[in-house]
TrEMBL record:
It comes from Fagus sylvatica. It holds the Pfam family Chlorophyllase. PANTHER family: CHLOROPHYLLASE-2, CHLOROPHYLLASE-2, CHLOROPLASTIC. One of its GO terms (molecular function) is chlorophyllase activity. This is Chlorophyllase.
Length: 172
């Protein structure tokens, strides 16, 4: 939804200074996108005029249950969103965590329990939440306050992370 409103595919009066996509997904598969489709599959076409950070999960495109599709299928997931971003943009993929691992450990009710059944998950959600919280703060400090020290320390491996990163990419 954030990309959709930022790209003016949905009505809003909000002004964006930066955009963060936490394991964004555009539908069930390429050609089966959620209306209005966000992805165009043309590199660097997102005309946003703001810094963008895309956080992806290494297990998001893995099926957990043969009856259901993966929660962040290849072709409509974080990789595709990042490929359409323009400078400045960054992309972090957390290796052994899934699409719903940013949620609380204790998710109540049927929907909460379903989050453990529908998507491939990591061992514990807490490290993923800590990473996402930290990287969001580092990104906002960099692009809203001009303080790039923490974001560059994470990029360069000088800062320890509670999770293993599979991918770290920067444009610009």
């Amino acid at each position: 939804m954030r990309f959709c409103t930022s790209l003016e595919k949905a009505a809003t009066s909000l002004k964006f200074s930066a955009l963060i996509g936490i394991d964004p997904v555009d539908g069930m598969d390429k050609g089966k996108q959620t209306p209005p489709p966000v992805l165009t599959y043309v590199p660097h076409t997102f005309d946003l005029d703001v810094a963008v950070m895309v956080i992806g999960t290494g297990l998001g495109e893995v099926k957990k249950n043969p009856l259901f599709p993966p929660c962040a299928p290849k072709g409509v997931n974080h990789e595709d969103f990042f490929n359409e971003c323009q400078e400045p943009a960054c992309h972090f993929v957390v290796k052994d965590y899934g699409h719903l691992d940013v949620l609380d450990d204790d998710t109540k009710g049927f929907r909460g329990k379903a989050t453990y059944c529908l998507c491939k998950n990591g061992k514990s959600r807490e490290p993923m939440r800590r990473f996402v919280g930290g990287i969001v703060v580092a990104f906002m400090k960099a692009y809203l306050l001009g303080d790039h020290i923490d974001l560059m320390a994470i990029r360069d491996g000088h800062e320890t992370s509670p999770v293993e990163l599979k991918t770290i990419e920067f444009l610009g």
